[in-house]
Amino acid sequence: MFKHDKNLLEMVRVERPNPNYAALLQEQIGGPHGELKAGLQYLAQSFRIQDPAIKDIFLDIAAEELSHLEMVCTAVNLLNGHEPQAMNATIGNVQAHVTTGLNPFYSNASGQVWTASYIEATGDLPADLLSNIAAEQRAKVVYEYLHRQIADRYVRQMIDFLLNREEAHNTMFRECFQKVQGTGSTQDWGVDKDARLFFNLSTPGNYVGSSLHDPQPPSFSEPQIPPQ
């Protein structure tokens, strides 16, 4: 169950309407690296998790991603302004001016509608965690691109907040990955001889890694919290 707090996670405001930028920001509503995808992906993955602590982390992050979606939709709504004016919008956001009455729509910056095919869920916790770490990294990159393309200080403040939250989620997923080493698809890593054979294809006939007798699955160092 989710409990809806009517206060946004962080204040959202804009200096002035900007329909063109509203179209760009749509990417984080209905794009493949957006907030809707993230929230629903982590929720879907949580259903097969047996570890109660890790399951809680997935659900907590999923709920927060939906709160991010609410923030981005609020910003797009403010950026679209008060009256439909399609001539001031880019092609990716024309629909808001002709069918949705400026209501933010589940589409990306090009106007393509969101699809559940964006969601990665394998039932294997290590694989899903690696997908989520990559998802958070990609989401941060998109926010960095968006940050560079607007001078509105309030929108930039919102984006700064969101991209830093993506970093926090990334860290939490990395900590979870540390805990599941040796389970699921990371079991018996490097046991077969074919898993210990590495090719240097720029030098035909040359094999590299022959001295690697104990290959390990991907791992991440525990994040270090700097002293206050």
Provide a descriptive summary of the structure in words:
With about 230 residues, the chain is mostly helical. The chain has helices at about 20-25, 25-30, 35-45, 50-80, 95-100, 125-150, 155-180; strands at about 200, 205-210. A two-stranded antiparallel sheet has the order 1-2. Strand 1 (about 200) and strand 2 (about 205-210) form a beta hairpin. The mean pLDDT is about 90. One of its GO terms (molecular function) is catalase activity. Its cofactor is Ca(2+); Mn(2+). It comes from Neomoorella stamsii. Belongs to the manganese catalase family.
Short summary:
By secondary structure, the protein is mainly alpha-helical. It has helices at about 20-25, 25-30, 35-45, 50-80, 95-100, 125-150, 155-180, and strands at about 200, 205-210. The chain contains seven helices and two strands.
Please tag this protein with its features.
single chain, 228 residues, mainly alpha, two-stranded antiparallel ribbon, 7 helices, 2 strands, elongated, calcium, oxidoreductase, Mn_catalase, Manganese catalase
Spatial arrangement of strands, main beta sheet: 1-2
Question: So what's the overall shape?
Answer: elongated
| N-to-C series of helices and strands | HHHHHHHEE
Round the Cα radius of gyration to an integer and report it.
21 Å
Structural class: mainly alpha
State the total count of DSSP E strands. 2
Distance, first to last CA? 36 Å
Helix content: 40-55%
